[in-house]
Each structure stands twice: as structure tokens, then as C-alpha cells.
Amino acid sequence: MNILVTNDDGVTADGILCLARTLSKKYKVTVVAPETEQSAVGHAITLRLPLWLRKLDINENFEIYSVSGTPADCVKMGIDVVLGEKPDLLISGINRGNNLGTDVVYSGTVSGALEGAIAGVPSIAVSSYSFENPMYETAAKFILDFLEEFDVRSIPRFTALNINVPSVPYDQIKGWKLTRQSKRMYDDYFEKRVDPSGGNYYWMMGTIIEDDPDPKADYKAIAENYVSVTPISVFLTNEEYLKRLEERYEDKTIR
Amino acid sequence: MNILVTNDDGVTADGILCLARTLSKKYKVTVVAPETEQSAVGHAITLRLPLWLRKLDINENFEIYSVSGTPADCVKMGIDVVLGEKPDLLISGINRGNNLGTDVVYSGTVSGALEGAIAGVPSIAVSSYSFENPMYETAAKFILDFLEEFDVRSIPRFTALNINVPSVPYDQIKGWKLTRQSKRMYDDYFEKRVDPSGGNYYWMMGTIIEDDPDPKADYKAIAENYVSVTPISVFLTNEEYLKRLEERYEDKTIR
Fold first, then answer.
1. Which residues does a divalent metal cation bind (chains A, B)?
2. What range does the domain containing A63 cover?
């Protein structure tokens, strides 16, 4: 199996190197990842500037390329320029810190996987729960096991798996659960400061809110030391609300 | 009604000024938009750098603020810092060029509206179909009419409306249709060039693919000179596939 690996923490981040080394024991791995950290870039792509691609001279069992862009850029270039064909699987990660609830829309890691899904490649995003104490070895070992058990070819087009792994030693992981993207979100606030020339600037801060009644909420699996596996798609239509609107509004003519 | 207006083309773009001027005839409008163009930034937010907020000294019927960040940053700062409370409505646009099909995941304009939806504000993204010949007056006039007819307070939490308006004179618009985010996407390719110091760089290009069998596909309404109105949510779980996975895999224990 040929696996394309990307991330949003940058090409030299500990998480991606741990993942690529672990996968390369069994699979052919190619890393194509951002030159610089791209956390929280969402599904940004680079249209107004060109992209530089560089093969790194690093002594590993796999090839490593850096791209002067975002995770989604890396996936596009990885497929079209580096590999010249679709890989059998794309994995984006291992992210430093979790991607649960509304994180999914901000996350560069998740967007890397969704870009693979758009391109028609079975794709997985993987994150280690704790930003302060990520345990990449646990997540990498889990992914290796998961690929034995889960038929990634069954993942439908335009859909990816969003996997979050508790930051605990591997032998404390109880297993994995199929979960749903939860309503976990942030209550934002801004810390105001004054720069040396008198201008106001602001740091974005946020408090996590976890109050989703759904027993399948992604964060609840993690709290019990299970890995959460959420299938997510690039189609955002709210079907239930669309149906209600259709009942209320016919197609409307103007005038 | 208090309306917060943002966009991704930047605070001085023609589209946002046309929208804000039109809306300010009837509503209290505050513009909080990116200092510089942020097209295709997706749902990026600025976490590693602070944000600068500046009130512009521009002679209009409404206040204009610029933020040194993304559309999602603008919405967060617009609510928490500029207004200090939730507006009654958020509108992101008018974008130069359409946001149909998979554009939705790349679009800064759409992300602005989804950020409003996360914050619990009724939110709308609006785009003029043509990048080359956008017709902002048509889109702005349509939005004014639409707000008379559509109860924005009925939009559920975590959901926004993604509106695309054909680039034709207003009297050629036939009406509006409720639509679904389509499978419209791009077949990417990269044009390789060599920089003056001998390095390779690449321009991302793409050919549009429109082959969605769904009669409610967003782009089909536009082709018939209807405005497309697609309700989209920030929850990406693929429910159908989740159900199939649940039938196949029980919650899995390791060891």
C-alpha cells in the first residue's frame, strides 16, 4: 500500500515523523507537508501565489517533500506533482492536540484529509488529544493496528475518517468507538494589549464548552480512553432544515 | 435590525461596500472585514499571532473596521470586541465569484457565515457568480428583497445560508431556489516554472467538473438565472456511512 502523509504542524514536526516512521515499517510512505506550521488554517489553498516544492535530504526510510503552502496544497501537489498518481491512502497528522467538535472546521489536519477525500483517495486525519503532552507513539501504533482491521477502501468518495487518540500510554487505550462530530466549541474572548507605538492588538482566547447530549459525541469516547473515529464529509447541506424550508417556501419568483 | 457585515475579498472590496451601502438604507450596519484579501483561506483563524483592529475614517452611513486576519477572525472580533454583543444578522460578502459545490470548504466568505452560525447569529454568505464580471448591485438588491421575505430568525444554530446570485441585471433574475451543495469540483493541475535562482515553483490551476445528477444541485439553479439558497451546517458527520459502519463494526476493544 502506498501512503501519502501530510499534516498541519509542518514537515519537521514530531508527530508526522513518528507517524511516517511507524507506517514505513509496513508500507511505502511519502511525506509531503507544509514548510512551516499551518495550524488552524482550515481548508485554505494557495491561489494567488505560486508554491515551492523541495525534496529534503533527510536520512529516513521514506521520501520527504516540503511545500510552501497549506495542508490542502500539499495533498494536491503530493498527488499531482510528487506521486503523479493517487496513493492508496492519505493520512494527515499526527496532529499536536485534538480535533473534536467545531475544531473540525478550523483544522488544517482535518482539511488535509478532506482534500484527499475530494480527490478520491481514502483519507484519515489523526490527532493526539493533548496539545501539552501529545503521545505520538500511542497514536501511530493505533493507526498501524487500525489499518489491519478497517478496510479503508470502503470509505466513500468525499468522506474521510477523523480519528482522535487519547494521550495515554498504548496499553491504557480501551479500543475505538464510532462517534459523531460533537457540538464541542469555544467561548471566545480577546485579550487587549497596546503595542509600543500605541496601537491596540488582541490575542484570541477561548474556553471549551462541552455540553452535547449525544452519547456518540466524539469527546465522550476520548474521556473514557477510547479512540474516536468519526466519518466526515465535505457536503455541508443541512438536509433536515432544507426539507423544512421546502415545505414552507416554494421556489420563489421575483416580481 | 443590527447587521454585521464581513467578507474575504478585503475591507475595501467593491462587493462589501455595495452590500453595506444597500443594507444601510434600511438597517444599522457595521462592517468588520479583513485588512487584506483572504480568498480561499477556508475557515482559518489566527491563534499564533495577535490581531490588529482599526476603525477606518471613511465617509459612509455605517462604521467600518479592519482586522489583520481572516473572515472568521473578523466575525469573532466583530461580535466580541466591536459590537460587544451578538448582531441580529451576519452577512458575509458579496464575494467576487461563486461559492458552489466543493468551493464551500475553501471559501473564506462561506467560513465567515459559518463562524457566525457557530456563535449563534443567523448568518448568510452571498456571492456574485462571475469572478470576471460580478454584478454586485444585483446581489445586493436581491438580499434586500430576500430579508423582507425570509425569516432569518428561523435559521437553526450551527447553520447558515449559502446564497449565490447570477451575474445578470436584476430584472433577469427569475427568482430563488432552495438547493443542495453539489459535487461541483475542480480537476487540479500545476503549471511548473523555474525561478531566477533555478528553483522550481508551481501555479495551481483547475478545470471545473459539473456532473452532479441531483436536480437540486446548487449550480443548476444559477444556470437557469435563479438565485441558489443552500442551508449548510458546520457538522460534517456522514450519517449514512456512520450507520453502515455501526452495522459492520461493533465498538472495538484493543488486545
1. 8-9, 39, 95
2. 2-182+214-248
